[in-house]
Amino acid sequence: MKKNIFTAIGVAATAAAAAQAAPQRPNIIYIMTDQQAAQAVGYANDEVNTPNIDRLADHGVRFNNAYCAFPLSGPSRSAMFTGYNPGSVGLRINGTPLDETLRDNTLGQIMSDGGYETAYAGKWHVHTNPLPAPHAFGFERLHGFGDEGLAESVVEYLQRDHDKPFCLVASFNNPHNICQYARQQNLPDGEIEEVPLDSCPNLPANFAIAPYDADVLANERSLSYRLYPTENFTPDDWRRYRGAYYKMIEKVDGEIGKIVDEIDRQNLWKNTVIIFTSDHGDGMGAHHWNQKSALYEECANIPFVVCLPGGRNAGKELPQLVNNGIDLMPSICDWAGIEVPGNRKGKSIREVVEKGRPDVPLNDYVVTEALFDQGGSTQGWMLRTPDFKYVLYDTGKNREQLYDMRTDRGEMRNLAIEARYRDELLRHRELLRQWMTENPLDGKTAPVSVIPLK
Predict the structure, then answer these.
(1) What pairs with residue 372 in β-bridges?
(2) What is the mean pLDDT of the segment spanning 283-303?
(3) Residue 58 φ then ψ, to 5°
(4) Greatest pairwise CA separation for the chain in angstroms
(5) For residue 25, which of 276, 271, 329, 275 has the smallest C-alpha distance?
(6) pLDDT band, very low/low/confident/very high, at 23 (cuts 50, 70, 90)
(7) Does residue 19 have a pLDDT over 70?
(8) Per DSSP, what are the bridge partners of residue 404?
(9) Which of 138, 243, 249, 266 qualifies as a cystine partner to 200, CB 3.0-4.6 A?
């Protein structure tokens, strides 16, 4: 036991010394919202006003094909801070305790051991909420759960004297309050201005439930009225829902602006990598869906912006596929000059961002897992390739779907039922089979038996 302890200390000391010697290591600022879809940002949608997120996009590179690891907060965040797919380490349900083997190998601890100052403000929710102690998982806790005062705590931290480069996380709760809005509950982060109906956004083009959509989603909605109290929503109710959702995004954008203003004041753009994203999206009324957990684009496709030091490649859009869960740790470690420990399977996006070209390879495909843990326990998987999106649920009618992402981002035409797309269907099935084999649930069982054979 002593040998292992001294070996671990020696490795950490060597890593820290090497990291300290590395020249010009950038600061890292990671800004995250909760439940914000990729379509729910001003630079992509003129129905919502997000001038501060847009400022980040103007300074940075944005990925249009970034996906969460899991459309639920706890599992998604577990991927970000452990570097593992949620299912492979048994973190598919909110509040699941972190295994002891993971606790000392989270991102904050890795960065701290590598010579970085590390600080965290806001929602944690990897397993508990907020961080369980003033110093936990390698982070100094600046602010607990809740958006009020969060930005101010971050600004105060940025104004400190720093002897080392820092890795700072600002994790906001909004627009997650849309969950309480749908249930007609009080909003945790304060009320929002009511939007008159004639000023609410119109219904999305994919408002209807598509023919050949998975019927298990309607079943899940019926089993959990608390999560999905929308069965009797009228079109006007859905418009009000969308209007409230955008107001919550605009509210959190104002808080993000306080941080961006401080970045401006100190000109931290020159030596900082700034990443903006969300842990998952929201149904936004598409296909009559609210909340998350489903594998629709609105739930799984998230904003992802990376600002490089000096504004390099500012304003560029890139098509590469990104998993903002498992790809986060290797990317941040790459910029920090720190080796990623263990057998993490994500890929660093550093080369893609720094070259700023669409032809630089990254992921051939990305996978998003899903589990409805408060209804019928349906499991699902989404596999996204450059041109297609394959969705599989483990039960129900039309549980298998294939969509052409070049022409049908709204997912209204299920190609899995068309013979002429049979080869693409089989190709995507096989890719998912390989992924399941390489990423068995809880590290033990590959659920390949759910993949159709016919």
Answers:
(1) none
(2) 98
(3) -65, -30
(4) 70
(5) 271
(6) low
(7) no
(8) 388
(9) 243
For 226, residues 6+ apart whose C-beta sits below 8 A from its C-beta are 183, 374
Question: DSSP state, 191?
Answer: -
- The answer to whether 319 touches 64, Cβ cutoff 8 Å, is yes
Say what the pLDDT of residue 47 is: 97
Written as one letter, the residue type at 240 is R
Per the structure block, which two tokens stand in for 178?
């849309």
Residue positions counted in the chain: 454
DSSP string, 69-136: SSSSHHHHHHHHHH-S-GGGGT--STTPPPPHHHHTTSHHHHHHHTT-EEEEEE---SSSSS-SSSEE
DSSP H or E run through 301: none
The pLDDT-based confidence of 251 (bands split at 50, 70, 90) is: very high
More confident residue, 18 or 258: 258
List, for residues 141-192, the tens digit of each pLDDT value: 999 999 999 999 999 999 999 999 999 999 999 999 999 999 999 999 999 9
What residues contact residue 208 under an 8 Å CB cut-off, 6+ apart? 287, 288, 412
Mean pLDDT value across residues 328-344? 95
> In the structure, what pLDDT confidence band is assigned to residue 22 with cuts at 50, 70 and 90?
very low
Q: Assign 3-state DSSP to the chain and report helix, strand, coil percentages, each to 5.
A: 35, 15, 45
Q: How many CB atoms lie within 10 A of CB 103?
A: 14
Check residue 345 and give its pLDDT. Answer: 94
Arithmetic mean of pLDDT, 37-42: 98
Confidence of residue 327 (pLDDT cuts 50, 70, 90): very high
- Output the average pLDDT for the chain: 94
Angle, alpha carbons 432-38-404 (nearest 5°): 45
Query: How would you classify the pairing of strands 272-278 and 366-371?
Result: unpaired
Residues 6+ apart with CB under 8 A from 373: 72, 92, 93, 94
Residue 18 pLDDT more than 50? Answer: no
**Residue 98 CA from chain centroid, whole number:** 19
Give the side-chain half-sphere CA count within 13 A for 436: 20
